[in-house]
Amino acid sequence: MSEEVQIRLPLGDIPPDLPESLAAFVRHAGVLAMNRRPPAREWHLDSFSLPSLGVDMSLKKVHEVKRLAEVLEDVCRSVSCDTVLDVGSGEGYLSQVMHHQCHMHVLALDASESFTAGARKRALRIARERIRREKRDGTGQDRSGPGVGDHGGDEAASGSPSSPVANPFAAMGGPVHVVGCLSPDMTPDDFYSIVGAGMAASGVPCPDDALSSASLGSVRAVMAGLHTCGDLATTMIRLVTSTPSMCALVDVGCCYYRIPSDEDTYTMISERCKALTCSFNAGALKLACEDVHRFTSSSAADHRYDMAVHFYRTILETVMTRLHPRGHPYTVRNMSRKKSAAAASYFEQALARMQRQQQEISRAGGEAPALPTLEDLNSEYAKHEGDFTKVSALLTLRAVLAPVIESLVLLDRWMFLDEHPHITARLVPVFNEDMSPRNIAVLAWKQT
Question: What 3-state class would DSSP assign to 419?
Fold first, then answer.
């Protein structure tokens, strides 16, 4: 199989001389995989209303935040809701755009204290910029609506208390960033208890009874997430279906392999998918996260390099598996092109990284598993050097299958929502695939 065929095959570009059984496999995979092209529509959020909203964002993140903010705003309007619960909010990129540009009340929840601290610093910088602009332009808003200057205005932005408001999520002059960790089996009361505790710790100017589970749970809200990892996405889906006040969901998931389950397999959540006689282990779920667009858009030289690095890693893991059949704690991760240009230099650098990890384990008092020698790795490579084309062919077939596996994971989520008669759900590609490989959003809203 030539390099050009390997690059084009995952796109369904089948050469005439390809064996019919392989051609049929590729065709069937193409039929089973979901369409990943965003629907034709005009996108209106071309730029941020405040320059500081885009600070520290990569071009990829800018694209994702603009697109998802626009979709989220549309969903909020369709269900007449002005409150967003941003789950897995990270440093608050989406939350801050939804508040300052789309004029929503926002609660941003993340499990990481460091991310939340960074989000609060970033929010303060954005709030100060907006206040300066409003003072300069004389465009200060009525304090009864969303925005900096609202719900306490300058005082809220600077941390001073303001009077209580009916919607606790609207009690500060910007998104309310709180720390909280969700679990798959949590109830709506559990969720709002975490939110209330986080809001109280953040100094939200509300009486205690306004931060109770009953009070918070009575506020109509749309739950949202941008690249929610692992089982966080399915946890959100379950919460939306079981919480009357949550009127809609907008979520783009990622990192499917971080879904914990029994016996290292992915457990379907919909009744229809549970009835299927298939299961996904961690390897299959990692495959679902592959960037197939990168695979199919590389040059012949880049493709050859990528295949070679995968082959070196295959040799390394073959030797490590022989030493430790039940697995090992060492990681290699990416290394520079110069250091992985040839097998010998790749093995040398990989071994050096693992040796440092081995020393760290020993210093911590743990039992560090043995490592192979450089001679072991080079000898194994010499033995299998002729198998390079087999490994590259296997990687090509994996790239063909990756979108199929992701499609089934997403369809399982859609089917779970569809099994609730009062909910309408859609799977919609939102991001350009060349910018963001995980680009399909789960949209759901409750019928009134």
Answer: coil
388: tokens are: 């390079």
AA letter at 37: R
Report the DSSP pairing between strands 280-281 and 105-110: unpaired
Residue type, 55: V
Residues forming beta bridges with residue 252, ordered by sequence position: 226
Give the number of C-alpha atoms closer than 13 A to the C-alpha of residue 301, restricted to the C-beta side: 2
**Residue 293 and residue 431 in contact, taking contact as beta carbons nearer than 8 Å:** no
Beta-carbon count within 10 A of 347 CB: 24
User: How many angstroms separate the CA atoms of 70 and 104, rounded?
Assistant: 12
Task: Please state the length of the chain.
Answer: 448
Segment 172-200, tens digit of pLDDT: 667 899 999 998 889 999 999 999 998 88
- 60: its two tokens: 């990829």
The pLDDT tens digits of the residues spanning 226-249 come to 999 988 999 999 999 999 999 999
Residue 173: the pLDDT is 62
CA atoms within 13 A on the CB side of 286: 4
Rounded to whole angstroms, the Cα distance separating 1 from 299 reads: 16
Residue 131 in this model has a pLDDT that exceeds 90? no
Within 8 A by CB and 6+ apart from 198, the residues are 109, 178, 179, 180
Using a cut of 0.90, tell me whether the model's pTM lies above it.
Answer: no
367's torsion region: left (phi>0), alpha (psi -120 to 50) or beta? beta
Nearest residue to 222 (alpha-carbon basis) of 96, 112, 73: 73
Inter-residue contact 159 to 120 (CB < 8 Å) = no
Amino acid at 118: G
- Would you say 357 and 331 are in contact if contact means Cβ atoms under 8 Å apart? yes
What's the mean pLDDT in 281-305? Answer: 86
Q: What is the mean pLDDT of residues 271-276?
A: 90
Whole-angstrom Cα distance, residue 249 to residue 73?
A: 12
Supply 15's token pair.
């050469």
Q: How confident is the model at residue 260 (pLDDT cuts 50, 70, 90)?
A: low
Distance CA(422)–CA(414), nearest Å, equals 14
Is the pLDDT at 142 greater than 60, yes or no?
A: no
State the Cα–Cα distance between residues 195 and 282, nearest whole angstrom. Answer: 31
Separation of alpha carbons 318 and 7, rounded Å: 26
